Amino acid sequence: MAIIVYAESHEGKYKKAAFEAISYAKIIADQSGESVTAIAINPTDSSEILYKYGASKVLKINSELLKNFSPGAYAKVIAELNDGDTIVLPATADASSFAPILALKSGFSLVTNLISAPKNLSPFTAERKSFSGKGIQTVQVNEGGKVLTILQNAYGTKENPVDGNEETVSISLNDSDVKEKVIKVEQLSTDKIDLKDAEIVVSGGRGMKGPENWGTIEELSDLLGAATACSKPVADMGWRPHSEHVGQTGKAISPNLYIAIGISGAIQHLAGVNSSKTIVVINSDAEAPFFKSADYGIVGDAFEVLPKLIEEVKKFKGV
Ligand SMILES: Cc1cc2nc3c(=O)[nH]c(=O)nc-3n(C[C@H](O)[C@H](O)[C@H](O)COP(=O)(O)OP(=O)(O)OC[C@H]3O[C@@H](n4cnc5c(N)ncnc54)[C@H](O)[C@@H]3O)c2cc1C
C-alpha cells in the first residue's frame, strides 16, 4: 500500500510545504513498510524534486477544470486516487480548506497541524499544535484511515532520495464536480518573498531603534534574495507589518539561513525560528541569550556591522 501525499504547487511550482508533507509521509512509510505516492495537480516542475524527499511515485493530473483551486473538486480527485489508509496534506490555507471534505469523503479521521514525527503507528499517535499555537495536544487515531495535515515549518523537510517514476493519470471529473472555485486572487501583503517559503530570512528587533533604520535590513535582504522578518515588539510598535512577526505568537519559519539583528533571543522568539538550519546573530551585547542558539555570532553595533556586511556581500556578488 502507498501513503498518499498531496504535493501542493503554486503556478506549477512545488511549495516547500509539499516537501515537508512528503518528508513526514516517508517517516510513516519507512516504519510501516509502505511507499509514498505524491499527487500533483497541474505541476510544471519536474517530479525529480519529489523523489528527493521520498516519493517513489508521482501521479500527475493535468486538468483545465482544476486550474482554479476548488476545495470540493480537489478533495474528490485525491479521494478517488487513494487506495491506502493514510493521506498526508500540508497545512496550507488551500489544503486545510479541503482536508475535512477529503476526510468525510474517504470515511477517515482527520488530524490537523501535526508538528512532530508520530510517537506510535498502531494506534497512530502524534502531537499537534492547538489553541492558536499556545498548546500541544497528543492525538490518537484508534481505528480506520486518517487524513493528516502537517504544520508548515514545524517538522521541516528531510531529504530521503528514492528511485521514482511518474504517471499521468486521467480523472473522471466534469463541470458539475466543480461546485465552487477561486476566480480571483488579490495579494494584500507586499512581501516579495513569502516568509514561510523563504530560504534566507533577515530579521530585525528592537535593537534597530526605529522603522527609519530598516533600509539596511531591506538592502541586505534584497542582495541575498531573502524575506524580511521581525520580533513581536517591532510589529506591535508598528515599525513593521504584523505579517513579518516570527515566534511563538507569530509565524514559525525554518529557512536555511536566519540572520537576527538586534534581537535578544527570548524563548518566545526562538520558538518560531530555532529550526532554521543556520542562525547568525548580530547583537551589541555579548551576553544576549540569542548567541547560545547561534551558529555564527557577531558582537557589535548593528549600525556599524550591517553596512560592512552589505559592502562585503556586494563585493562577493560583484554588484
Ligand atoms: C506570551 C508571549 C508571547 C510572545 N511571543 C513572541 C513572538 O512570537 N515573537 C517574539 O519575537 N517575541 C515574542 N514575545 C516577546 C518576547 O518575550 C521578547 O520580549 C521579544 O522577543 C523581544 O524582542 P527584541 O529582541 O526585538 O527586543 P529586546 O528584548 O528589547 O532586545 C533588543 C536586543 O537588541 C540588542 N541591541 C540594542 N542595540 C543594538 C545595536 N545598536 N546593535 C545590535 N544589537 C543591539 C540588545 O542587546 C538586545 O539584545 C512574546 C512574549 C510573551 C509573553
Give me the secondary-structure topology.
Layout (H helix, E strand, L loop, with lengths): L1 E5 L2 E2 L2 E2 L1 H17 L2 E7 L6 H5 L4 E5 L9 H11 L4 E5 L2 H14 L2 E6 L5 E2 L2 E7 L4 E7 L4 E5 L14 E4 L31 E5 L10 H10 L2 E4 L1 H5 L20 E5 L5 H7 L4 E6 L12 E4 L2 H16 L2
Parallel strand pairs: 1-4, 1-6, 4-5, 5-12, 6-11, 7-11, 13-14, 13-15, 15-16, 16-17
Antiparallel strand pairs: 2-3, 8-9, 9-10
Bound molecules: flavin-adenine dinucleotide.
Give descriptors for this structure:
319 residues, Rossmann fold, 2 domains, 8 helices, 17 strands, binds flavin-adenine dinucleotide
Written account of the structure:
The protein is α/β, with parallel strands linked by helices and 319 residues long. It has two domains: 2-177, HUPs (Rossmann fold); 200-317, TPP-binding domain (Rossmann fold). It is 27% helix and 25% strand. It is built from eight helices and 17 strands. A seven-stranded parallel β-sheet has the order 7-11-6-1-4-5-12, sandwiched between helices. Strand 9 (124-130) and strand 10 (135-141) form a beta hairpin. The longest helix is centred in the N-terminal third of the chain and has 17 residues, at 16-32. The radius of gyration is 21 Å and the shape is globular. The model has no long low-confidence stretch (mean pLDDT 94). The structure holds flavin-adenine dinucleotide. The site of flavin-adenine dinucleotide has 26 residues, from helix 6, helix 7, strand 16 and helix 8.
